User: What shape does this take?
Amino acid sequence: MKAVGIAELRARLSEYLRSVRRGHPVTILDRSTPVARIVPIREAGGELAIRQPARGTPPPSRVPLPPPLRLSIDAVELLLEERRGRG
Assistant: This one.
């Protein structure tokens, strides 16, 4: 599998798409960190199949939610600290 940086992908997008069409996935890197993958679309039945829920499954609106967490942390203060660079 090929790995390519964002700038390189922009500069040679058509070339990489031709490679994907030939069946070779491409991993997109942002500063050496993988962030996305371009893969070929599978032909004949490769698309997402949507099926009916299993018999007896409750509708999403009736699935019970877990109880809320009891934390002694102020989430807003935690976010503000992180944004100030102390987190």
Summary: The chain has a mean pLDDT of 87. Residues 75-84 form the longest helix (10 residues).
